[in-house]
Design a protein that fits this description.
323 residues, alpha+beta, 6-stranded mixed β-sheet, 5-stranded mixed β-sheet, 21% helix
Length: 323
């Protein structure tokens, strides 16, 4: 692939547009890749945070037996055949009675690659707020409550961080508006933008198998990979081409998400920004040596692209990933 094509691919990922997944550069040795299926070996959750001009947050009252009467953000499991956005809009309609438009991903949370939750900042576009007279198996009712004085009891306190994240985003957007791209993928995998910087120069790790490309690592479902979370797949790929004991590796966050949900393609590709640096840099100005022939460092020469990368790195302008 020519340098112009590499620049175009990197620009597409930085812009949140994504790229088709053509294959994988790293897979778990003990677990050959097999297509993932919702409700069988993966579970995706969608969740929405709504904040109005009065600084109130939209909550729903749970109807499930184990948490009946408690309050939570509109959330639920994705169903086979849905896109991430379709699942979000269905859950909000069922639980709160409202139509909605997602504005941006706020965060992605994971408990290993088999359980991933996508949290969105969203706004209502229609419908009528669900009342107690409309209680059903989905929820008992919905209501707006002051952000600083939420009703009790909450189903879980994990939503407090998400509500504050939404409020902070409204005051100062740390990352661009990012929505999932409808591109097919059969596995849970990660496309890596692995960077090394020195004196305002930026290098990006590229794979060589086929045409040069941003490398992709498939997530495994073994107990070890589940415990390590999706970062385990990142370290696995880097261990295959770099000597890591003298390097500091940091996963910054997401540049985008790719998923289709149609035609039994339930996989997800997370486009992830990663940094590699020497623990004791000294006078090192070149990236660490790559082992083997499957990867190489590509120096970003286009000034606009270099500037974008440096800005995203310096300002942590990414969607956070939490465990």
């Amino acid at each position: 692939m020519a340098s112009e094509s590499l620049a175009g691919a990197l620009a597409a990922v930085l812009g949140g547009r994504g790229l088709h997944v053509q294959g994988w550069d790293s897979v778990p040795a003990e677990e050959p890749p097999a297509p993932v299926r919702l409700r069988k070996n993966v579970c995706y959750i969608v969740l929405a945070v709504f904040l109005n001009e009065q600084d109130e947050v939209l909550l729903i009252q749970e109807a499930k037996r184990e948490c009946r009467g408690s309050w939570y953000l509109p959330a639920g499991r994705m169903e086979p055949g849905e896109t991430i956005i379709e699942a979000l809009q269905r859950e909000v309609k069922e639980e709160a009675g409202l139509q909605c438009e997602p504005l941006t991903l706020l965060s992605v949370e994971e408990r290993g690659p088999s359980w991933i939750r996508f949290a969105f900042l969203a706004r209502p576009t229609g419908g009528t707020l669900k009342t107690s007279k409309e209680a059903d198996a989905e929820s008992l009712q919905a209501g707006w409550y002051p952000r600083t004085s939420l009703p009790s009891p909450l189903r879980a306190h994990d939503i407090l961080h998400l509500v504050e994240l939404a409020a902070q985003y409204g005051q100062h957007a740390r990352h661009p508006l990012i929505l999932p791209q409808e591109l097919p993928c059969s596995l849970v995998c990660q496309r890596l933008v692995v960077t090394f910087t020195s004196d305002q120069a930026v290098w990006v790790l590229m794979g060589t198998v086929g045409v040069p490309h941003l490398p992709i690592t498939a997530c495994g479902f073994t107990p070890v990979e589940q415990r390590g979370g999706i970062k385990m797949a990142i370290l696995r790929l880097l261990q295959e081409c770099l000597t890591l004991h003298h390097l500091a590796v940091e996963t910054k966050g997401l540049l985008g998400v790719q998923h289709l949900g149609k035609d039994h393609t339930d996989g997800v590709c997370l486009n992830v920004l990663v940094t590699v640096a020497f623990r004791n840099p000294g006078v090192q100005t070149e990236p660490p040596k790559v082992q083997g022939e499957n990867f190489f460092w590509w120096k970003v020469m286009e000034e606009e692209l270099q500037s974008q990368l440096l800005q995203r790195l310096q300002e942590s302008s990414v969607v956070p990933v939490n465990r």
